[in-house]
Design goal:
The chain has 10 helices and 3 strands, in the order H-E-H-H-E-E-H-H-H-H-H-H-H. By secondary structure, the protein is mainly alpha-helical. It folds into 2 domains: 74 residues, Winged helix-like DNA-binding domain superfamily/Winged helix DNA-binding domain (Arc Repressor Mutant, subunit A); 157 residues, GntR ligand-binding domain-like (Four Helix Bundle (Hemerythrin (Met), subunit A), Up-down Bundle), CATH 1.20.120. Helix 5 packs antiparallel against helix 6 and helix 5 runs antiparallel to helix 8. The N terminus is likely disordered.
Length: 263
């Protein structure tokens, strides 16, 4: 095995990384082929060369993907004749969402807050509608842990994250939870002092008890009102520090003021 000339350590990890990348790429192609079968109603897949050109991958990756499809009983490859589709229904197709966040970009953080808000308000509505009593009991335990963490400042970030994850769990919507899980790595950045702001999110912590009570009592309007206040405080932290989003926030405040005056 070759060794690194500087450290003397084996370079095995590089080949392992290439293998993992190839396997990940092959699985991406498996999902693309499944989509192709469903959307195009294929009885027979195009040949390796055509698939390679169409999907912009090597023929080796195409062959590995075809082996996976055959193993799953979706296709059968006959040497000299081609790859035939045996199954078009109940296919398990995986969808991946990849995104990049720049930790010191106020715009990226603002955008991610918007993603979080959209997802979590949907989860809140579903939790109020779908949560059973045992779900609410588990959520209550999360609230107790968060209250203690707020008081002691011990493991506050992870406990706060657990509180919000529980909302998605008790929504009982698998896809919503899985989408949230995909973006959670980015959301964790928000809870790790973005832009050097050590107190980010702290202003909204006392409102979590009100949010919990609103969900527990299945009061959707109240839950949305409290949650919007939490998100608005997060936005305020960012624009106070960077100035970004000030125009957007002022526009929202002006709208709220006109609505209150109209009432």
């Amino acid at each position: 095995m070759n060794s690194c000339p500087v450290s003397g350590q084996p370079i095995k990890l590089r080949s392992q990384t290439r293998m993992k990348t190839k396997r990940r790429t092959a699985m991406d192609i498996v999902n693309k082929l499944k989509k192709m079968i469903v959307l195009e109603g294929l009885d027979r897949l195009p040949g390796e060369l055509e698939l390679s050109e169409r999907l912009s991958v090597s023929r080796a990756v195409v062959r590995e993907a075809l082996r996976v499809l055959e193993y799953e009983g979706i296709t059968r490859t006959i040497h000299g004749s081609g790859t035939f589709v045996l199954k078009r229904t109940k296919l398990r197709i995986q969808f991946n969402v990849n995104f990049e966040i720049e930790t010191d970009s106020a715009k990226d953080i603002f955008d991610l807050i918007e993603v979080r808000s959209t997802l979590e308000k949907s989860a809140i509505a579903l939790a109020i509608s779908n949560a059973c009593e045992s779900d609410i009991e588990e959520f209550s335990q999360c609230m107790e842990k968060l209250s203690k963490a707020i008081e002691t400042r011990v493991e506050l970030s992870s406990t706060d994250a657990g509180f919000h994850k529980k909302i998605f769990e008790i929504s009982h919507n698998r896809f919503l939870k899985e989408v949230f899980d995909v973006v959670f790595d980015g959301l964790e950045v928000l809870w790790k002092s973005p832009l050097g702001l050590e107190t980010f999110g702290d202003a909204g912590l006392p409102l979590h008890k009100e949010l919990f009570e609103a969900i527990k009592s299945r009061n959707l309007e109240r839950a949305f009102t409290v949650y919007d206040r939490i998100i608005e405080l997060d936005r305020k932290d960012i624009y106070d520090l960077t100035g970004y989003g000030r125009k957007l926030l002022h526009k929202c405040q002006d709208n709220d003021g006109r609505q209150a005056h109209g009432d």
